[in-house]
Amino acid sequence: MKAFIRANTRLAPVAGLNLAGSGTQVPMRLWQADEITPIWSATEAELEQAGLDPPFWAFPWAGGQAVARLILARPGLARGKRVLDIAAGSGMIAVAAASAGAAQVLANDIDPLCEAAVALNASANGVEIGWLSGNLLEAPPPDVDVILAGDIFYQKQMAERFLNWLGSAAAQGVDVYAGDPGRAYAPEGGAAPVAEYNIETTTDLESVSQRRGVVWKL
Ligand SMILES: C[S@@+](CC[C@H](N)C(=O)[O-])C[C@H]1O[C@@H](n2cnc3c(N)ncnc32)[C@H](O)[C@@H]1O
After folding, report:
1. What is the pTM of this model?
2. Pick from 49, 161, 53, 32: nearest CA to 110
3. Which of 17, 118, 120, 215 could form a disulfide with 28 if both were Cys (CB 3.0 to 4.6 A apart)?
4. Which atom of ligand 1 is nearest to the CA of 59?
5. Contact partners, residue 130, CB within 8 Å, separation at least 6
6. Which residues pair with 108 in a beta bridge?
7. How far is the CA of 126 from the centre of ligand 1 (A)?
8. Phi then psi for 189, rounded to 5 degrees?
9. Distance from residue 87's CA to the centre of ligand 1 (Å)
């Protein structure tokens, strides 16, 4: 999987994301695809499966960029804490949390390719990220201090399941932040916006070149 990712994406900076704590402007770099259709077709061919979900791991989604920016701007939200990046995709948020000085960073996604993508992206940015496999929504939230999620409100049933699960984590005292760029099923009540950013994106991915990314605290 790592060889497939290296062969079909390139290591490139994410505009507006500089790693925390370096004292200099070191850009976060992720293994990214330029366009969605070729990497999607290549993934289906590699896995010998049709009808797969898009290769989310190959792009820094706007909702995740908003969370990563918040963590890099306010590293104290993660510093010294046990952090979970759920629905991690590339692991961009996990990289941000690790660079902010989190005591432990775990990432999870139901797409098995994400494990390889997260490992490659952790290594590219010189940070350590652990991996939790399986669908965490099928059990109570794990014992962490902070849960971060980027761009998870684009399908109705998925958004409802995430909101319930994240809500139960928040009720147990976990700090829960979710970033969203205006997807159809973003939270309307029970959450407070803590930050907003203009996020550069591509028309290939989003049909516009910029989205407004909001981070909600649940
Ligand atoms: C739009 S992508 C966002 C990825 C990343 N957070 C970002 O912002 O770049 C949504 C991700 O949610 C993942 N996902 C969907 N259902 C999930 C679940 N039940 N548990 C964990 N991840 C899930 C998908 O596989 C996909 O990687």
Report:
1. 0.96
2. 53
3. 17
4. 9
5. 104, 105, 106, 107
6. 86, 132
7. 23
8. -130, 165
9. 3
Q: Into how many domains does the chain fold?
A: 1
Q: Is the CB of 87 under 6 A from ligand 1?
A: yes
Ligand 1 atom 15: the closest Cα is on which residue? 87
What residue owns the CA closest to ligand 1's atom 23? 87
Cα(109) to centroid(ligand 1), Å: 6
Grouping H, G, I as helix, E, B as strand and the rest as coil, residue 128 is coil
Q: Residue 20: its pLDDT value, please?
A: 84
* Cβ–Cβ < 8 Å for 85, 70: no
Counting atoms of ligand 1 from 1, which one is nearest the CA of 114?
27
Q: Which domain holds residue 28?
A: 2-217
The stretches in the chain having pLDDT less than 50 are none
pLDDT of residue 50: 84
Phi, psi of 12 (to 5 degrees): -140, 150
Give the pLDDT score at 37: 87
Percent of the chain as helix, strand, coil, to the nearest 5: 35, 25, 40
SS3 172: coil
